[in-house]
Design brief:
Blueprint (H helix, E strand, L loop, with lengths): L5 E6 L2 H10 L6 E2 L3 E8 L11 E8 L4 E8 L12 E6 L8 H8 L2 E8 L1
Antiparallel strand pairs: 1-3, 2-6, 4-5, 4-7, 5-6
Length: 118
């Protein structure tokens, strides 16, 4: 039986992360800025395709502890599951990265001049 539950996506490398954190200030005390998720419940053998043309193009913030950077990846912000590609940027105590999806869907996001990734 295939194993499921693995997260696949793209990690920010250390240099990109440091540069991005200088350009986009975290709004909350817990800085995440770690990865872009492709699929949260992937089979063990699934892999993310090569990411090309990746850029942060917007920010979402619910004002209550979730800040996420919206990502355009290979020409789109839409994940195959209908969600939006994003990087959970920062969190307030008691908030979880998985909440970023709902914040973007419910509150939308504010466009930024594109900030290239990798």
């Amino acid at each position: 039986m295939p194993h499921s539950g693995d997260v696949i996506g793209w990690l920010l490398n250390g240099e990109d992360r440091a540069n991005l954190l200088q350009r986009i200030a975290p709004a909350y005390s817990r800085v995440v800025a770690h990865h872009v998720t492709l699929k949260a419940d992937a089979a063990e053998d699934e892999r993310a395709p090569a990411a090309q043309d990746a850029a942060i193009i917007g920010l979402a913030n619910d004002g209550e502890g979730i800040q996420a950077a919206v990502v355009r990846l290979n020409g789109t912000t839409r994940r195959p599951d209908g969600g939006v590609y994003h990087i959970t940027w920062s969190l307030a105590p008691g908030r979880r990265a998985v909440e970023s999806n709902a914040v973007i869907a419910q509150h939308g996001w504010t466009p930024l001049a594109p900030v290239e990734i990798g």
